[in-house]
Here is the input.
Amino acid sequence: MASVARSVDYGSRFAGRTAVVTGAGSGIGLATCEMIIQDGGKVVAVDVSQPRLDEAAAKLGEAYIPLATDITAPDGPAIIAKVAGDPIDILINDAGIMDGFLPVTELDDATWDKVLAVNMTAQMRLIRQFLPGMLKAGHGAIVNVSSEASLRTCAGIAYTVSKHGVNGITRHVAAMYGPQGIRCNAVAPGGVKTNVGGDFLSQLAAARLGPALAATAPAPAEPELLARAICFLADDVAAANINGILLPVDGGWSVM
Here is the structure.
């Protein structure tokens, strides 16, 4: 794998780097943008909510470049690439939605299609958009946000399947393109304090999963704790020899 020779300086580890971050208007995505900017980088911040982006931009300044667009739209990746330029150095696939914990007998096609489109297919399409430029440059860091739901049954079927798919995308990209300087890793959050809805819309799921979650799941983490792990994996020095991993960032939930 191609290496990038830089000394470790956590005040400037992303200096001169351009990152694209989805779900960048709040939660994990926003915390990740803040950290990249603090460490010298520039972020194209993608979110569906213009008001959230405007609020963050007023706080973070010109290094935070807001872009309100739908990542599931056919032209979404190309729109993002037009703003970000090509190549970029870092791609953070954070955007995601929940599914109300719906089991298969209660799931409708619209929910299935939407959850997989946002959580899985959009990640693949964004990687497909930016990977050629990274390959030409000889380096690139991709970090996908998976979930504890890819390690245990703690969500609905659509969300669970989508996050298993994220793990597969991550490992496949790492295996295929690692020798050409591309690192692709994923984090698996447990509960996090975000605005992504996590209410039970199924009595069956509440009865089956509710007690187990209450007994084993740690308290929801602050988004910054996930951002630290994401930025670690995005760092070409600290994580230079890390590729294709799924890193649980869940307060130890995955060992329960």
About this structure: Residues 18-251 form a domain with the Rossmann fold fold (CATH 3.40.50.720). The longest strand covers residues 182-189. The first helix runs from residue 27 to 38.
